[in-house]
Amino acid sequence: MTPAPELYVVGAGGHAREVHSYIRDLADAGWKGTLKGFIDDNLAPGPHGRLEVVGPLAETTFPFGGPSPQGRYITALGNNPTRRAVVNRIETLFGDTFPAWTLIHPDSRIGEDVEIGDGGCIAPAVIITAGVRIGRHCILNVKASVSHDCSVGDFVNINPGATVCGWVKIGDEAYIGAGATLKDRVSIGAGSIIGAGAVVTQDIPPGVTAVGVPARIIKTHAKQS
Length: 225
What we know:
- This protein has 2 domains: 6-97, Rossmann fold (3-Layer(aba) Sandwich), CATH 3.40.50; 103-215, Hexapeptide repeat proteins (UDP N-Acetylglucosamine Acyltransferase, domain 1).
- Helices cover 13% and strands 30% of the residues.
- The protein has 2 helices and 24 strands.
- The protein has helices at residues 14-28, 80-94; strands at residues 6-10, 34-39, 46-48, 51-55, 71-75, 103-104, 109-110, 115-116, 121-122, 127-128, 133-134, 139-140, 145-146, 151-152, 157-158, 163-164, 169-170, 175-176, 181-182, 187-188, 193-194, 199-200, 208-211, 216-220.
- It is globular, with a radius of gyration of 18 Å.
- 37% of the residues are buried.
């Protein structure tokens, strides 16, 4: 029998409060893990509202200098590049001794032949239909829907109420705003931002911001050195 996980949430802001409520819902539905606390570099250890911060992201935060064999983590950071940087830091500190954990809310709907990468957060009322591939450390927020045969890269954030139609491809670190609609077979380039309520009817290249109905590009992002 696999031991129940000892879970740490990295981040203690607004999204962390949401994750906290999701974990409580999972526990009510029968999840047997233990929430050990929240890790945050910018807050002192102790209670912060309903969240118990255990310390910064460092080996010394854990008993005996590292997580237990049952230790798992999930990030609660909405900014995609920040989330990737934190995951890279965790992997540098702990290697494969501190695996990522995937949260799938009991009120979500996951169809057949769906793959969800490590470290993802699937919020309440999310619908993922069939033949969908979701990458690592993605956030699918409340009432987002992803239809058949879509491919979603790593570190993507799909915000509340967004609709992703069939055969859509979303690149790594893309940000899909609340209530946006991605029409069938479009492609969203890596690192691009789709504004809230936008309707995407044609491919969007990497590294831009697109808004409106239909979506149009209004900004090209500076390339990271």
